[in-house]
Fold these 3 entries.
Entry 1:
Amino acid sequence: MVRIAAHQDTDGRLIRLGVAIRNKRKAAGLSQEALADAAGIDRSHMGKIERGERNLTLLNLCRIASATGLRPSELLKDADL
Amino acid sequence: MVRIAAHQDTDGRLIRLGVAIRNKRKAAGLSQEALADAAGIDRSHMGKIERGERNLTLLNLCRIASATGLRPSELLKDADL
């Protein structure tokens, strides 16, 4: 699948964040669908976020962080951002 | 002016981030226009971000953080996020 946001993400920041989200989700024992539902984010959109294909918004970052039991700043730090 | 993103931001997270960005910008001795230009963000959009009126994207958060000499995670931490 084409990464829509890739042309803006030459440093791989969205990919690093997606990996950090996936790692935290798995550590929490959640499926991707369960995390999407807990965060109130469309399941397809969540898949694209985890693959670094979407330039997510701050409020969606906050929702994902909350659903994985982290602060948004901690999730970014995990992604080396 | 109506805050477009306010209906999604019941906890004032965008407003807190806007205040943190403004404080860091002033501490760096930058005008709002200079920060917008340094971050490659439209000046009008930057004004709305500082007022908490826009749900900014992760890559714009990274650009603003870089222009103020911070990491994105530090900027969120400053905003208590």
Note: Chain B touches chain A at residues 5, 8-9, 13-14, 17, 55-59, 61-62, 71-74, 76-77, 81 (CB under 8 Å).
Entry 2:
Amino acid sequence: MTKNVYSFGNGTADGDGKMKDTLGGKGAGLAEMCRAKLPVPPGFTISTQVCNIYFDNKFTVPAEIDAQMMDALKKLEGRMGQKLGDTSNPLLVSVRSGAKFSMPGMMDTILNLGLNDETVKAVVAKSNNPRFAYDCYRRFLQMYGNVVLEVPKHDFDEVFDGQKKKAKAKLDTDLTAEDLQQVIEGYKKLVQKKTGKPFPQDALAQLTGARDAVFGSWFNNRAKHYRKMNQIPDDLGTAVNVQAMVFGNLGETSATGVGFTRNPATGEKAFYGEFLENAQGEDVVAGIRTPHPISDLEKWNPAVYNQLKEITTSLENHYRDIQDFEFTIQDGTLYMLQTRNGKRTGPAAVRIAVEMVKEGLISKEEAILRVDPQQLDQLLHPVLDPKSKKELILLAKGLPASPGASVGMIAFTAEAAVIASKNGPVVLVRKETQPDDIQGMEVAKGILTSRGGMTSHAAVVCRGMGTPCVAGAESVTVAEHKKLVSVTVGGKLITLKEGDWLSLDGSTGEVFAGKANTIDADPSSGVLKSFMEWADEFRGKFGVRANADIPRDAKVARKFGAEGIGLCRTEHMFFAEDRIEFMQAMILARDEKSRRKALLKLLPMQKKDFAGLFTAMNGFPVVIRTLDPPLHEFLPKREDLMVDVAILPYADIKKKRELVAKYVKFGAEVKNLKTVIPELLKRVEELHEFNPMLGHRGCRLGVTYPEITEMQARAIFEAVVQVAKKGIKVIPEVMIPLIGGVKELENQKKIVVDVANEILGKAGLKDLKYMVGTMIEIPRAALTADEVAKEAEFFSFGTNDLTQTSMGLSRDDYTKFSQEYQDKKIFPADPFAVLDQEGVGILVKMAVDLGRKTNPKLEIGICGEHGGEPSSVQFCYRVGMDYVSCSPFRVPIARLAAAQAAISGDKTEVSRTA
Amino acid sequence: MTKNVYSFGNGTADGDGKMKDTLGGKGAGLAEMCRAKLPVPPGFTISTQVCNIYFDNKFTVPAEIDAQMMDALKKLEGRMGQKLGDTSNPLLVSVRSGAKFSMPGMMDTILNLGLNDETVKAVVAKSNNPRFAYDCYRRFLQMYGNVVLEVPKHDFDEVFDGQKKKAKAKLDTDLTAEDLQQVIEGYKKLVQKKTGKPFPQDALAQLTGARDAVFGSWFNNRAKHYRKMNQIPDDLGTAVNVQAMVFGNLGETSATGVGFTRNPATGEKAFYGEFLENAQGEDVVAGIRTPHPISDLEKWNPAVYNQLKEITTSLENHYRDIQDFEFTIQDGTLYMLQTRNGKRTGPAAVRIAVEMVKEGLISKEEAILRVDPQQLDQLLHPVLDPKSKKELILLAKGLPASPGASVGMIAFTAEAAVIASKNGPVVLVRKETQPDDIQGMEVAKGILTSRGGMTSHAAVVCRGMGTPCVAGAESVTVAEHKKLVSVTVGGKLITLKEGDWLSLDGSTGEVFAGKANTIDADPSSGVLKSFMEWADEFRGKFGVRANADIPRDAKVARKFGAEGIGLCRTEHMFFAEDRIEFMQAMILARDEKSRRKALLKLLPMQKKDFAGLFTAMNGFPVVIRTLDPPLHEFLPKREDLMVDVAILPYADIKKKRELVAKYVKFGAEVKNLKTVIPELLKRVEELHEFNPMLGHRGCRLGVTYPEITEMQARAIFEAVVQVAKKGIKVIPEVMIPLIGGVKELENQKKIVVDVANEILGKAGLKDLKYMVGTMIEIPRAALTADEVAKEAEFFSFGTNDLTQTSMGLSRDDYTKFSQEYQDKKIFPADPFAVLDQEGVGILVKMAVDLGRKTNPKLEIGICGEHGGEPSSVQFCYRVGMDYVSCSPFRVPIARLAAAQAAISGDKTEVSRTA
């Protein structure tokens, strides 16, 4: 029979640290620590497989697994010399979730299990501390009542607060043992009332109930949402860890804490963490009381402090990664409850990786693989402009919980944040965040909390998401129900309301009233520089280019390490204020002659832009795509014109003047509106398309209006000549969009080559190398890539359109059902964000292979947005492309992803930072 | 060096009848007839390859080919004992085009070449017939002047008519030799004036000029258009045949004629054709004089008649096909000028094929391969309702030139026909048609001419296109310039004008004033029945189903031999007047409950339709597709609503009442218009899509609104039960549209299977076999077909959408540039009519192979419109599909195409009827 339950304790363990798939992260860590003879309370882990069995088996655990659990329980009871439910020496246990990948706060935990009306008396007797015993019992009643029996938390709070009021207690700790007994009675009545049954007194029933609730929590909404955000598969399941209780709340010699071997926000090598005396674990992370920094532990109990430091250092050396640990000190004795590789911010990830290489702890390859490329984004975020900082009022300084600058309008609830985020950037301001807030946190540009520490919910989640966060800004008063936040600065009360602007610096903890300016990050300095240099070494010849349409973006791209421009969308130039009128004139032209006249006006403008791009990219290639969008995109909307034509007969002079203003560039005057607007509508009707995505665009425009391609080629090569004559190295690549087969490419290529040869020939630059190639963004082009490659000097995969056509899915429209498709697991991820390797990827691979077959020299890249998404970049590397191209800010991400792909070789997935 | 010029004559020939690729049809026929020792004037053929060389070589023929031509000319001169340009015994030649596939009247011909001011005198002397000699010369001047020198024809006509007037001649033949000399002078002056040069007197220059003009005519507009219509590749080229002249216009013992060995309109085995005494060949086919039936030749010259009959019968036996021949009788001696396999109507093709099998001339396989499947369409056309015929006035009886009934509005010019055809069916009425009329002929539903015979331009072209035609209705006066057609019936003058209705019976030659009813063809009787039975024998297990949405169409489909329904589009049912309101209620429903309420109203209607289909298809499968189109298609148009909302503030009571009427089914009253219309617009805006083709449709609707799929499954299986209980054999196949991968199919299949099992179980029909399968119409589904086939019991290729997505081409929008794409050779044919085997076909083949790999029992068919297009059907057969499905009227075509594919095996193309 399959082994489903793994015991650990007393220096041995059935499992080990490598068994994360089976034991989850926490269970594997506990097993490994036991094997390393560290002080770990004994227990057992029910494997992640059982979680799937539980769901497949109508929410029950089969008897044979129950039997394995009973054996493990017996072993645990033996090790502890205690017995679950025993009325003289009862075993108390914690029951915790633990998935392969850490999902902080997402699933349920139950402490002090095994307590009931009888066993609590034994604990009273044994501890000689009735207050402790009843506090444990009331906590257990509340946790179990809420998690397993599903009685709302606030009902318990009501009972508890009632008792506090009755006892005139200010703090929880002011309640006496007797008060707590009243609370216990109140809780039990509450459970009876809400569930119709008394609270389960049978300890074994408690255990199975808690276990099943932990399994069940795998599919609670916030866990599902977290997994979706972090692309964690639903079928991994969670393990359940049952462990003998140790108590940090046994009195003033007890404490509980969490920590990191290095600073998870900055990466600095410093012992780091927090603890609370006389508390149970959840108190620290829940953010209810503000804990002490771990350095204070040294004063509080130096022996324990040193032991903890020694243990965690050895754990770091053992795991060769930053450790995130939990510990409890029970009456002066240290117990390790958990260790795992610590989550960290992007800056911390890079710094830790670089420093660990320097410390000889890991290799450069490992360092590169340690950083999730997406995390680099955090290093590339803007920071607050120091000038703005001086001008704005500094409201408070909280904990720098997640780095980066964030400027937005205040929202006080997750719901409000979601709504407001549609109109602009939002900063979510809360006393403390809860797992329920996750959707609001996701849309927020930054988060400010007035309570909680560096390991509070807000801090942990924000670092994971790369959202700037200032936590525990305790001088700030957040009145969520009144939708006000206030703080006294220099004796003056300042109050901000919902919608007011707020600026945060997540790297310093500063909070400013008002809207600060931000400054772009500098990716070319510091540890990041070394790190990226290593990445580039491994990446080798695999190139990273940027998509940039204007010289400004091209310069940014160079700064981020782009080795050329992979896509310049020439039409973006046409939308500019000073150009669109010529573009419109060109479209409205009724014959080639007047079309050419309008094009002649656009030529010098395009030429200037291209010259700027070539100059910025001195020595690097620049891929310029000929006109792509359908022409009607440059004209007024058909439905607007229809409305204006319809109301024209009713229009008074005021309305007419409005219309004249609207259509003045099409020659409108008050007296000719009745001809100008309908005529414009007529042309727009002619251009109207039912499915513009599949319509008259891309090379189809160039085929029907060869003069457009000709003008663009002229602008490109005149710019080439102009720039090359200044001694700048120009490498132009002209790209034809939307071909369905080789014939369209032939047609357009001829126009480009004729113009190029004429212009270069005249300028005496006959030997200047240029290329003509094509987008591969239509399935037919991919399917016939062998033919296409006979004419193309390069391919560039337009995976945005290739995804749309291959999946028959309009990017603009599929939002109507995308949520449902992801919820129902039809799409594992948004196919426009993460390349669909199983479907669209087949076509990409086919096209690469077919293209290279007939043209081994073919240069192949990608310029769809997937070019900056790590798993897609790795796919591009694996199928043998020469480069990826992405937005300038994502260039470092692509460089790292490519390096990881190079290191991992043919392995399908680079390991996630667990 | 490549041989480019092939001599023939005196019972030998360089080439033979199989060399159509090189010699063209005419040249190959001449060579073959020479080899068979038939009386053929000697000559030579310049190969089709030279045509391509001519175009590639800047419109010139290289010197080495000129040299080959000179050698062949010498040989010809030797055989004739004459010399080109010789002033005592000049050789006269004809210069004719001749492509691989016959293109009647599309390219240019020049007769009597070699005549000039000197040689004509020799002809006068030799023939002792000055009138003949000058008639030849003036014809040559005119043909050469027009074709080679490009002087407009009407300029020559003006000179000619001027002379006729001057000479008071009524007929051309009334002109004397002197008159003709005047004409010649006039012509020469005309040429001098128009071209600035005298008419070329050098016979060799005439020859090369004529040759080049024939090559050039390969790319004249009507030839290009004809090739496009008939899918003849542009790069085949035409050969040029230079042949010694023989003269049918040498006097009353001379004649010229054309004929067929069987009736090309009906297929009847009867010597068939026409001749004109004292005429040159072009006079017969040009339709200027109405010729005599060939049977009259027996009286006119019985010896020649018998010789001709003997020769043509042996030619038919030799070629084992109906022969279309041209002959000239020069002074009582018969010469054969051409023989080729005759073009024939669909009914004739079938009858000839069947009868030739019975005569033992060809095998059944050959018979099947002989008929172009498209031609069957002509047998399936409706005929005029005899009742209508009795009620309408019979205007005239002309020649039954091309079968079928045709009812339309009169147009007098090709241009008018093209315009009028946009508003309804058109009958083109002309004195006689010209090659220039081709575009008008293409759009016309029928053609009536007052002049010309069974081999006139109108007759030949109409038979080719399958358009009904009545030719040579001489009692009818067509006044094209006045746009009137008049005829005296029973002493009464009846005049019809442009736009009046006319009914033609192309099978009888009857012409009726007014709009007749038509009756559907009966494909189940006559020779067609035997023929289709043979086809079905060869087709074997490869099935042909029909696309039918309603029971009426299903019955028609059965009549045409459909073996099931391959596609029932359930949404067509929803558009019906009595249903759309429930559909709209369903769409406007804000929650599942009200949606289900509306669906419940639709259920019995769908059930009734399905029951009708199952009943009609007793024992044959019925594929029912779940809802496919986007929901907004069922609601008012967004732009209309926007306009109505915009004018609402200005609307007076009349306008308001109009709006109420328009929106009454959405609850509109005068007082609530201001809420009803904007609210409807709001919902329509929500449903609005930028690219509906790629939007929320197909299975995506079923995934988001499972209750729709559930209702449809319920309607299907309740109908199954109802019909099955009557003892009818029901084979339901439920088809899920627009899947991109297996997961959508899983999702929808589960709904269908659950409903099916529930309903069949309750009815005690658990063992009734049904299937659930899917459309393959999205590239991703084809690419992942191995996965899809694990869930699918059948695939049906939706090649309409698959073409749209694979080519990134909207069927509704690509008409904007389709012409340009075909002209520029980017598309060899309309990809929505003829499956793009080189592109989309790759995906189809992949999907078939992948699907069968994981599910060898997978049933595979096609239900896109390509399922009725012969070359596409043959492709489907070759890739291993089980069946095709097409519109009911195309079922016989598909059956025949499939049989041809079966016979041809793996050959890529079935030979075109040449």
Note: Chain B touches chain A through 54 residues (CB under 8 Å).
Entry 3:
Amino acid sequence: MKAEILTIGDEILIGQVTNTNTVWIAQQLNLIGIKVVHMATVSDDREEILKGLENASQRADMVFITGGLGPTKDDITKKTFTQYFGVELVLDEAILVDVSSFFIKRGREVSQLNKDQALIPKGCRPIRNKSGTAPGMWMQKNNVHFISRPGVLYEMKEMMIAEILPAIKAEFKLPHIYHKTILTQGIGESTLAELIEKWEDGLAASNIKLAYLPQPGMVRLRLSTSGDNEKKIRETVEREIEKVIPMIKDHVFGFENYGEEMPTIEKITSDLLKERKQTLAIAESCTGGYVSSLFTAIAGSSDIFKGGIVPYTNDAKHELLNVDKTIFEKHGAVSKECVLALAENVRAKLKSDFSISISGIAGPGGGTPDKPVGFVWIAVSDGKKTLAKSFQFGDDRNRNIVMTANAAVSFLRKFVLKSI
Amino acid sequence: MKAEILTIGDEILIGQVTNTNTVWIAQQLNLIGIKVVHMATVSDDREEILKGLENASQRADMVFITGGLGPTKDDITKKTFTQYFGVELVLDEAILVDVSSFFIKRGREVSQLNKDQALIPKGCRPIRNKSGTAPGMWMQKNNVHFISRPGVLYEMKEMMIAEILPAIKAEFKLPHIYHKTILTQGIGESTLAELIEKWEDGLAASNIKLAYLPQPGMVRLRLSTSGDNEKKIRETVEREIEKVIPMIKDHVFGFENYGEEMPTIEKITSDLLKERKQTLAIAESCTGGYVSSLFTAIAGSSDIFKGGIVPYTNDAKHELLNVDKTIFEKHGAVSKECVLALAENVRAKLKSDFSISISGIAGPGGGTPDKPVGFVWIAVSDGKKTLAKSFQFGDDRNRNIVMTANAAVSFLRKFVLKSI
């Protein structure tokens, strides 16, 4: 079963909006064994949409269309659908009730524009929208399925999870697709490739495809396969993973099981602390709340996170965390001495088992020849021992914040595991 | 000049990676007057890439290809290029020097795999990669330009900014494209459409296209036009904007000038404080550092941001910010009384002009019938007056954190402007 994802939207063609719908749809389809063979984005233009539908029908069995639906004037998917399928619009009573109650519940009038949301192409299977007003549309032409949903991510996800995906799973026989990704840190893509070259050469024989996915501070190795026997293909991949791990052991920090959230380094570290029933506090200056927010974004973080302090000025470091003023005079705020004090004091103040402290120069301003932009000190403490390390990142402020956060959490993880 | 953006990458088709390269490229092309007519994503497969190149050449004058380049085994763009253009690979000495020095500078050996990066298709104009090793490739076939760059965002951006975009601007005569976007908050898409219906009907006569771009907590109204006279098309759009603003004045909080960063509510608020030479401190519980990080992500935030505290437990609220324990007993941590105390005390402690405080239930756990998941109290203070408001958001933790942050910053902005 091959699928194409067709997105309609000028706002995407001019780069004003990132196409996040597509990523999510692709993940979901892959999870149920549907292979996405193509993605395309076209303009909010009748001719372009018609060409897009026609091209997609040549490549795929199922075409998922997002965008071009909704109550405002630039929505033309529905009209173009009627042209492509050669049918007229008819009123769907159930959808009319849905649309009307959406507005009535909110104490608002139901305008004609809104009522027209309940007009759907004849022969279409409408899909109810419980979070918004534009219904989805499922139509078939020459054995190709066309499933159209609104562009608003929240509404589209709900529709897919509640109705569309269950229907597809129930109505079609699908092969199994399996992926597993090894998460590595501290090694570059080409060096990694050289270490595992022989093993990689052997994968094609097991019908496994390997992809390298580099990103700041991490290289992911994705193994992918498909087949009819779910258990067998899973075992094949797991066996290959067992072969390669010893070759790159020092750099592996986790795995990504397909269909599950990619375990970020903070999630892995948070789970580690949770297992050990231990807690964390953070004092972060240049990362300004970002590292704390990474932990608190995780549901249940109150089990491990006691709190954080963002002492953005020297005054704040002194007032909130008792950093001695002589440290600023002798060594400056971006120093080993400062982060050692910050780590020890935030841990004591918040009464946590562990702490992280960070002080650096995110940029673009603030650098000096001794301490250029991107220079950062990070410390970790457990009350008995406090260790500090310095790092030199680059020029870009936001990239420096991300790299610093990754380095800090990684440092903490290894500290907790006592491997340093 | 029409362009297509072709992305090569299985990792995108299975939804493991969001295609951020494409957004950025589209923005840049649009800025210089090149119209992106189509975007496509194909598999890391020779046949699919060849079809992708051929289809793109039918639709566009310029095809931007991303992905499929780099030192590891699954990179096939270069080989497919040679097949599509019918040429062989030749060694480029300048690129070889670049690649070799990349590794030598880092104290690493230059492997054969790396040296092969310097092989490029005959007749190709190579584009140096100063942040990585894979060079970009610029080739022409039948008046269509094919420009291929590595998939790593950082490397691709550098190559575009340093060489490719300047070359395009210098070598081609391009029309002008102009966009301006009105940022509104606190009004739904369909209600907005009804308010401005008559004005919208008049836009086609000025060759202006209007698009509605809804997202959590905001609806953007984008006006777009193109033409040969840069000044004239700009004036036409500005004139239309002047006409519509009075109709929706209460909801407008800013503008997005195309080519500039979209001014987020936190950037607008930060600039407001900077203009007034005033400062801010934040005490945030359920948003856990996120709001502080929004401000500190902005370069120069140390001009306005004094610091933040994430008092994630009741103990922390008491120890760090002197919230009286009786407040927890009588009203709970998620209460008007608690946020009033947090706002006043963090402002006093960090000696800022303004403060924000937040206490709520992000979810998914922690809700009660009285205070369900998504229930949040927010307060703002200026030392003389402290105001508090409660909000009811939804079930999704991360969405709640974002909505709460938007509401908090918006609340502060209006408070600073004394409009509430």
Note: Chain B touches chain A through 102 residues (CB under 8 Å).
